[in-house]
Amino acid sequence: MGRAFNFSAGPAVMPEAVLQQAALEMLDWHGSGMSVMEMSHRGKEFIGIYEQTESDLRELLAVPSHFKILFMQGGGLAENAIVPLNLSQGGAMDFVITGSWSQKSLKEAEKYGQARVAATSQTDGFTSMPSPATWKIGADSRYVHICSNETIHGVEFHELPDLQALGCDAPLVVDFSSHVASRPVDWSRVGLAFGGAQKNLGPAGLTLVIVREDLIGHALPHCPSAFDYKLVADNQSMYNTPPTYSIYMAGLVFQWLKQRGGIAAMEQRNIAKAQFLYDFLDNSSLYVNHVAKDCRSRMNVPFFLRDESRNEAFLDGAKTANLLQLKGHKSVGGMRASIYNAMPLEGVQALVAYMREFEKTQA
Length: 363
Fold this sequence. Notes:
By secondary structure, the chain is of the alpha/beta class. The chain is 33% helix and 17% strand. The chain has helices at residues 16-24, 44-60, 75-87, 100-109, 229-234, 244-259, 262-282, 311-320, 345-361, and strands at 5-6, 67-72, 92-97, 114-120, 141-147, 149-150, 155-156, 172-175, 192-196, 207-212, 287-288, 300-305, 323-324, 335-338. Helix 3 packs across helix 4 (100-109). The chain is globular and about 65 Å long.
């Protein structure tokens, strides 16, 4: 039997070709006599890796020249503090609460300024998305925060809100951790986007921040130096030792994405994978997905067995079938299939085939 299909929400599946290349280069990168893990971050070998990685990412995501790309550490959770430390200036911030991750962002930001709820879908269990027309954004807002894909609840913004059309001049801050590089980004609507790499870009350890230049240079006085976007940008993400191996691995993923046609081609594959799984769920008598169809995530598909006494049997059978990490997050229960860029259509087909057979045994 080949490699298992890993549906983990993160750290998550990586492209097999990338893992194979990293294995080949583990002991000696391109004749340098060193593993990338052993390189000085200021040596010419790693500087070359870094520059190529940044260039490929800017090309893939079509990042405009007036945005800085920062390679940081701490994950999305750290950015929940680092963003207000850099952008709030101690003032008000507005949050759209669509699931567990935006809730965490709000709670953390309360330490650094006035964090307000502009809208929430909590009353329906985070199974829908509040329409931007209903958001209550203050005129004094320093920024508006959204999580564009909620990994736990499986809701996704299929279009970023146009704040200017809402009469709001505040920049939009986007936590795109769990669907970065799965679809194009409309940068004209974004002030800052951040995400941990461990879902779609590579291994844990790297945090990506893409920030408009005019938003840099306003950090609060007590912002730690290593988290000051201006210091990070002025030092090409080398103010402190960056997560060198994670950057290298992300660079291999970016090359893999380019070889597969880039983000537009990847988006079409992701649409096909998600549609295949959702179509099965919608026609099943055993499984159910509660998320409104207009905001279902293409990356994270939560579902429940109508008879939850069968959960353990379902998971045991899935493991035997080489389908791993399907248990839902402990806060919501049920199941979850994370089908990131590196998950092939064949993996989703294998999951649906197993689910269909399991359903037959329950009749």
